[in-house]
Design brief:
This protein is of the alpha+beta class and about 70 residues long. Helices cover about 35% and strands about 40% of the residues. It contains two helices and three strands.
């Protein structure tokens, strides 16, 4: 069995573009099976960002690693 896991996310923030390895953000991406197009993902992402950062961060890119079991 193989799986894709997010290991970093590139974000557009108020301070410009940043690369983040924030565990909360990565866990959220992985919990939605790395499908950042889902409506449920966007709802959870917006809620998480507003709660922790005070505004919604825009995803520019996600870095993945593949695991093979």
């Amino acid at each position: 069995m193989s799986g894709k896991h997010a290991i970093y996310v590139v974000l557009k923030s108020k301070d410009g573009q940043i690369e983040s390895k924030d565990h909360g953000l990565l866990n959220l991406i992985n919990r939605h099976h790395c499908d950042t197009t889902l409506v449920a993902f966007h709802r959870d992402w917006n809620t998480h960002c507003l709660h922790h950062f005070g505004y919604v961060l825009e995803i520019v890119d996600v870095g993945y690693e593949w695991s093979y079991e």
